[in-house]
Amino acid sequence: MTLFFDTIFLSLSVTFISVFFGVILGILFEKTTLPFKNTFLLIFSLSLFLPPYIIALGFSELFGEWLFSFGGVVLVESVIYLPIPMLSTFLLLKNINKSLEDSARVYCSWVCILRKITIPLISPYLFLISSIVFLLSLGNYSVVNFLRYKTFVMQSFVEFSAFYEYKSAYILSILIALIVATLLFFEKYYTKKNYATIFEHRGFKNNNLIDLKNYNYIVLSFVVFLATAFVILPIFTLVINSVSISNYIKAFELVSDSIFRSVIYACIGAFFITFFGFILAYFIKRKNLYILDFFSVLFFAIPSTVIGIVFIMLFNHEWSSFIYASPIIIILAYILKYSAISSRLIMSNLAQLPVSFDDSARVLGASKIYTILHITIPLLKKSFIFSYFLAFVFLIRDTDITMLLYSAGNDTFAVKLFTLMANSPQEIISALCVMMILIVLSPLLAWFILRKIF
Amino acid sequence: MKNITKKYDNIKVLDNFSLHVEQGKRVVLFGASGSGKSTLLRVIAGLETVDDGVVYIDDRLVSEKNNIIIEADKRGIGFVFQDLALWPHLNVEQNIEFGLKIKKLAKNERKQKVKEILKKVNLSGFESREISQLSGGQKQRVALARTLVVNPKIILMDEPLSSLDNELNLQLRQEILSLQEEFKFTLVYVTHNKEEAEFLADVILYM
């Protein structure tokens, strides 16, 4: 029981710190005249797309033994999850109905507007985002495993693997299911009701920024300090450690098979995740089947260890050995875990397509399937491509699910790197980490180029 | 349609409503927002079920209580939506020939029909234009052409001119009238503009 409450306290601390800094950075990057803000936005977003243990490894080079403590875990997880509240605040502020702020500008200063109008308006959405950070931190496995810090998730995994006991995993799942249900209820009946008033633009669209004036350089120094401490320094340490071609050659020889498998699994998984994501989004948005949203978000929020345990119990039988002993089990678990990312992304774009687009095709004689194939899907082309790349990145970096489910000869790059960390030279590990960073960044770069074509 | 009742979240937007429209007539549904005009059009088109009552088209039962007997794609009805619903990923020609493709017309025939209908709506030469390149009035004409090209017996229009300025509104309502007289389709037209209603209607129904 103590361990359970310790884990809750850990996740609450991570949530508080990442949301606190994330919201401040989101405000600075969207609403102020801060120089280089787009560059900083990209730098801070980086940690979201890297396998969490890479950030942990970078920090361990800097902080040594201290990192293997409560404070160390809080630091690493806060940096990993900081992009979620930061990007969310950035997007919320970008889309807020500017006239709501303008009407207050005749009465008070920007600080007062932010405090009394803007932040209160977006606070219910920030609450939802904070809850997501809390759930992700609660279910994190690879960071606490790497930092040898005992949490409830770790215990559920150990109990299962050592004694085939799944009571802890069961308790954790029930708790998370309850939180997810409450959040979705809150989202559906509170935030969606007010969404149109707060975020739909009517009339004049301005883009007034808060002029930081004399504070520009002080704020810039603060942001540079945070970016250096949270992201640049840990990654830079890895790059410095690995700086030799021979290290990269040795590293590549060690993991070339795993890289190939990772890319194949991620390509296949991302395809199915986008496919099922669209089906889910279509049924949720167009057929009001909100129960599907509940289950997809629930599977995303449930710790990977729990999903892994369920899959092992489901498929560790003679009849299903072709699944259990092959990469199929990994792909299936990926689909279950990550479909919510794709469905939520496609859903937000589907919501912007007027239903009359479908209806006009229907009255012209098109069947439902024909309408989906010739109207809905082509109009969502951009979201499909983005969803594919995003899913690809999440699968390439996935460690938790793959580590539990891979069979001999089927490991991925992320898992291989994680296992090599225990007994390989530091410079090789650093080289592997840099390779991982490049692999993760390449699809994002591809998306950046392709989005202009589509 | 007889005794139609339609509820949204337990609020009745149509309550025991009956309507008979003769073939080739122009009926205008006139009324304030929320009076159920658009819902009525969607019920006729087969895009909504009814909570009670029946709908007939050409003496065929097409909808009954909680059941769409003939789906929207099989009713042979044209619909011009308030937002026009022109698909932005298709150009003018592709938007107009959509219904003809469903009918499996040969490519040459499709091209010919698109050309003819564009001439009728004064948009000759606009085939390859993107929807985003059109003005409000041109979009309106494309929506009209897309509906007319499949030669429906009934056309439903849901406030199609509401976003246009007075001058263009007047010009286009004249064109709609001419086209209706030429093609002889039955028109059910929704508006909250009294002048528009009086201009177009054989029969005005106040809702």
Distance between the termini of chain B: 15 Å
Structure classification of chain A: mainly alpha
Order of helices and strands of chain B: EEEHEEEEHHHEHEHE
Strand content of chain B: 15-25%
Helical content of chain A, roughly? Answer: over 70%
Let me know the average pLDDT of chain B. Answer: 91
Topology-level CATH name of the largest domain in chain A: MetI-like fold
| Total of helices of chain B | 6
Output the CATH class name of the largest domain in chain A. Mainly Alpha
What does the overall shape of chain A look like?
globular
The fraction of residues in strands of chain A falls at: under 5%
Largest interface: A-B, 18 and 26 residues
Short characterization:
The complex is a heterodimer of chains A (454) and B (207). Chain A is mostly helical and 454 residues long.
Written overview of the protein:
The complex is a heterodimer of chains A (454) and B (207). With 454 residues, chain A is mainly alpha-helical. Chain A has two domains: 1-241, MetI-like fold (Orthogonal Bundle); 249-454, MetI-like fold, CATH 1.10.3720. Chain A is built from 22 helices and no strands. Chain A is globular. Chain A starts with a helix and ends with a helix. With 207 residues, chain B is an alpha/beta fold. Helices cover 35% and strands 25% of the residues of chain B. Chain B is built from six helices and ten strands; from the N terminus they run E-E-E-H-E-E-E-E-H-H-H-E-H-E-H-E. Chain B has helices at 37-45, 92-102, 107-120, 136-148, 166-183, 194-200, and strands spanning 2-8, 11-17, 26-30, 52-57, 60-64, 67-68, 77-80, 154-158, 186-191, 203-206. In chain B, the strands form two sheets. Chain B has a five-stranded antiparallel sheet, covered by helices on one side. In chain B, helix 2 packs parallel to helix 4 and helix 4 (136-148) packs parallel to helix 5 (166-183). The longest helix of chain B is centred in the last third of the chain and has 18 residues, at 166-183. The mean pLDDT of chain B is 91. The chains are: A mainly alpha (454), B alpha/beta (207). The interface between A and B is medium-sized, with 18 and 26 residues.
